Amino acid sequence: MFLVTSVQNFLSFVLYNSINKDYIFTDAQIYKIIYSIYTLKLKKQKGNKLSKIPYLLEPVLNSELILVNNAKKLKKDPTLLNEKHLSRIEELCNEFIELESLTSGGEKGYQSTKRKVRDEIRDLSSMTYTDRDTNMFGQMITTITQKIVTRPQFSGYTIKDEMQSLAIQHILLYSHGFDPYRQSEITGQFISAFAYISTIVFNACIATINKFNKEQLKAKEDFLEHQKLIHRDPNKSTIGPEFENAERVVHLPSLKQGELYNTIKSTTITQATEFYIPQDYKITEKELNFVLKYEYNISIKRIKPKEPKEPV
Hints:
- The protein is mainly alpha-helical.
- The chain folds into 2 domains: 2-217, no CATH class; 233-302, no CATH class.
- It is built from 10 helices and 4 strands; from the N terminus they run ααααααααββαβαβ.
- The chain has helices spanning 2-19, 27-45, 58-76, 86-104, 111-126, 136-148, 160-174, 193-230, 260-265, 285-293, and strands at 237-239, 248-251, 273-277, 298-302.
- β2, α9 and β3 form a beta-alpha-beta unit.
């Protein structure tokens, strides 16, 4: 379900921006992102552990996000094309991955080198404008969304597919807001690309849950109202308000099935009116909707069955 929903939402997003002449990705990038959704879904089905993907390291993700945002600008201004640093960026990313593996393996003394490599990756990526053919960013954002929706706070929901698809759409929509040189006012460090994307995904999940809860609540209210109106105590009002002293009472003891709608519609109502219908009369959906939307006060009651006389 997620596979189809994600691709559909992404294509709808691309179509919307195309209509408004605000293209975000090239055709090749669109293809690669859709392809990554398929490949990562297949990897998940085969049991691959996505958390071990090396390119989810912060500097690599930061570089990909910068390059994607620069590709948007390049689409609008082709004169910005600058690909001379691409090979160097790739070398630095591979170097950082190796340094990270050494650090995670227990070796020390690489922190200073890692910071220099990270800063150089960010600087060169910011100067690079390319429409390169790659699916790496699509794999990254798909992996991140898959990991976040499995957090404990989302474990009880059955709408994880909708969360993932909306999150991917929002990442593509709001990725341009990332500034690689923006610093935190508290820590003084550069804003993390992973934190930026994770925040978008988390907010998309919350938005999906709120929409789902709203729809569920509306459906529940409609169901309860329908049940309350149809299956209420026959001695009480079936539809409409309870009048203490109705100004007008209409008895319909021999009403046939389906005649209530025409009877009420043909009756001139200028005051609070009670209609008494047979005990076994089944109110149709059409009659129910008509009475609920009627501009005057109408109350429908069922005729109370006569109690059998006690033998003398």
